Each structure stands twice: as C-alpha cells, then as structure tokens.
Amino acid sequence: xxxxxxxxxKKSNVKNLDILVNELKxxxxxxxxxxxxxxxxxxxxGDTPVLQEPLDLIIVLGGDGTFLSAxxxxxxxxxxxxxxxxxxxKIGFLTEISVENMFYNLEKIFNNDFAIEERMIIxxxxxxSSNSFQNYSVFNDVVINxxxxxxxxxxxxxxxxxxxxxxxxTFFADGLIIATPSGSTAYNLAAGGPxxxxxxxxxxxxxxxxHTLSNRPIVLPDNVTIHLQLHEDIDRVxxxxxxxxxxxxxxxxxxxxxxxxxxxxxxTDKNKNYFDILRIKLGWEERKITSLxxxxxxxx
Length: 300
Fold this sequence. Notes:
Structural class: alpha+beta
CATH architecture of the largest domain: Sandwich
Helix content: 10-25%
CATH topology of the largest domain: Tumour Suppressor Smad4
C-alpha cells in the first residue's frame, strides 16, 4: 500500500500534544507523505466534516472516543480509509499502539508490515413519531438508557429474520445495549455482556441492570434486523450512538438496527493477536503472575 496522503484526528487537551504532532509531521515528511486533513476531535461535536478527497491513512491520536470520532469522519465520506490508533487515553482497545512505540509501528506500516482487520458497522434507522426518519452508522454500540430520575423502562424488542418478525421480549431494565463485536469490550462488557471476537459479525443485546434476573445477554447473527420501541411513555429516556450522538426517546419512536454494507478498516500489528490485546488491556497477565507468585509463596 502506497501511503502519501495522511489524515490526523487528535484529542487536543493532551499534555505536550503539539510536540508529538510536530514530531509526527517531521517523520511523515521524511516518508514523502503529506498531512492533507487535520482536526481536533472537540470540533466534531457539531456536524462531522466531509472529506473532500481520499486519504491513504488516518492516524488517531487519543483514546477510543477519539477513534470513534474518526470512524464518523470515514463513514460520512464515500472512502474506505484505513485507521490506525495511537493511545493517549486509558485502556484503548481500538487505539492499541502506545506513544512509546508510535514511530516503530508507523515505520512498519510504511514498509507494508501490518494487517488490516475489517470491522462490522451497524446501520441505525431512527424514526421519531413526530418527525422524519434519520439514518446513522455506528461502530461500537447503540444504547437506550434512562435519565437519573426515571424509573425502570420497558423496551419492546423484536427481530426480523427471513421477512418474519419475531417477538424477543420486553426488557424491563435501566436500559439496553446493542453492540457490535468491536463494541463488546466497551459499555457491553461493563454491563456484564460477553466479549465477542471482533471479526465475528454479530449483534450483542445486553440489558442494563434488568429487573428480571433471567434476562441475560443474547448474541444474534448479523443477518437479522432488530426493532426496538418503548413499551410505555416515560420521561427522560435517551438513545445514544457510540456515546457521541444522542436523542430523547418517546413512546412511538422506532429504532431499526441492521448490519451496514460498509466496514471500518483497522490497521493492526500482524505479530499480535486479539488475545494479546485482551491480556494487556484487561490485565489478565497481571492476574496470572500474581496467582503464580501466590502459589510459590505458599509452597515455600
């Protein structure tokens, strides 16, 4: 892959970021690459800008939230642009490259020593009862949840398969998460949902604090369409897309979720696998070492 046109999407309120960006631009100049698009993620709170030209690569400097903003930029365009994430945040499942290893990994990318994972995208068709429908592309998750003072909400859930609509359940809970495999390690994981291998296209339905304890997370195939609607009219219930775009929900509003025909191309280290990332980000290796040290201490 010939890399000449670069986009940089960065989180601005990071200490010494200007120094890092200048070092990055110097590196890119030496590689005969130019920065054709640069934006601070804070400026994306309004309308997402439309790319005026194709790029060969987008470099994300920030955390997973910054990465999600980058996916919005790509999905609003007609271009399939690979994204690589440099982690300036905390955990960083999507921005897996550390700052310390940034130039080492970029060198490998320019030498075509990398892998590309194609990640599933959700298409959300939001149909407010009092307005025209709106379409959105979502990378991580769709969340319905209540405001701070609201009571438990009921969410009528159906799936459509082979043109037949099937009732799943009315989930009485604090909310409901519909996640992609990429989003399975985000809010879904915190709510007790399963980790799903990122290239296994599927939907994960995870109730948030369900009133009925037998309401457990469900993994669905990617060829179904999910229909959601509030069971009753409750004040202060919200629909949130990737934690970045939100709407107030009312009874009669319809949410229709399906698999998008588009994918996000994520550049990864081909010498690492997904379980390496899980061990590092979730601290599994630390627990293993602690357990071994504990066993050794008590044997002695």
